[in-house]
Amino acid sequence: MSEYRKSQIPSKEIFGNVNKYESYREAWSRIKLAQENHFFLEAITIQESIISDRLISFLSRPESPNPLPDHTRGRYLSFNQIIQKWRSEVSDTSVSCIALIDAVDRWRRIRNEAIHAIVKSDTGESTQSIDLFLQKAKEAADEGERLAREVCKWCKKEKIGKNSSLSTS
Questions:
Q1: Do the beta carbons of residue 42 and residue 34 sit within 8 Å?
Q2: What are the pLDDT digits (tens) for 86-114?
Q3: Do 83 and 112 touch, CB atoms closer than 8 A?
Q4: 77 with 68: CB under 8 angstroms?
Q5: What is the residue-wise DSSP string for 128-162?
Q6: Is-contact 119 41, C-beta < 8 A?
Q7: Domain chopping of the chain, boundaries
Q8: How many alpha carbons fall within 13 Å on the CB side of residue 66?
Q9: Alpha-carbon distance 144 to 163, whole Å?
Q10: From CA 125, how far away is CA 64, in angstroms rounded?
């Protein structure tokens, strides 16, 4: 076991993709620790990773009308491209799903601002105050956690719904 690991070993037996389970367990643990310790950019980065992973999984499913291509050598779609592909694939679905897609897309822009705002400014302009930067980063991390949980729930519901419709056909 690595000396860097922050979360504890699970107390129950895990079935299925153990590595994925452990990765998610570690990710949620790190989000919590990052937010508690005001490392909001770390939380935001992990939240994006979770959202992207769930959406890539959804968009790569065999029954997708236009599945994502295989990813080789770590080349992936951008977060924006993933969201737009998600939007195009579920365009005729419920209002709540469209609202979730819109919320994730708004958060993507807020996340971009938070990640770049610590030192970036227009030429000749000063950067924003550190207090304002931290407040905005905290707000982005809070919203990112909520959205990461919502996307996970949505993807799980989609997977269960598809599996139950397959078993009844």
A1: yes
A2: 998 886 667 788 999 999 999 999 999 99
A3: no
A4: yes
A5: PPHHHHHHHHHHHHHHHHHHHHHHHHHHHHHHHHH
A6: no
A7: 18-168
A8: 8
A9: 28
A10: 47
Q: Quickly count: other Cβ atoms within 10 Å of residue 86's Cβ.
A: 23
pLDDT at 168 over 50: no
- pTM (2 d.p.): 0.83
In sequence order, what E strands does the chain have?
none
In the chain, the amino acid numbered 73 is R
CA distances 133 to 48, 76, 80, 125, Å, are 19, 29, 23, 15
The amino acid present at 53, given as its one-letter code, is D
Q: Which residues have a Cβ under 8 Å from the Cβ of 31 and sit 6 or more positions away?
A: 43, 46, 47, 141, 145, 148
Q: How far apart are CA 147 and CA 19, in angstroms?
A: 23
Q: Which amino acid is at 117?
A: A
DSSP state letter for 70: P
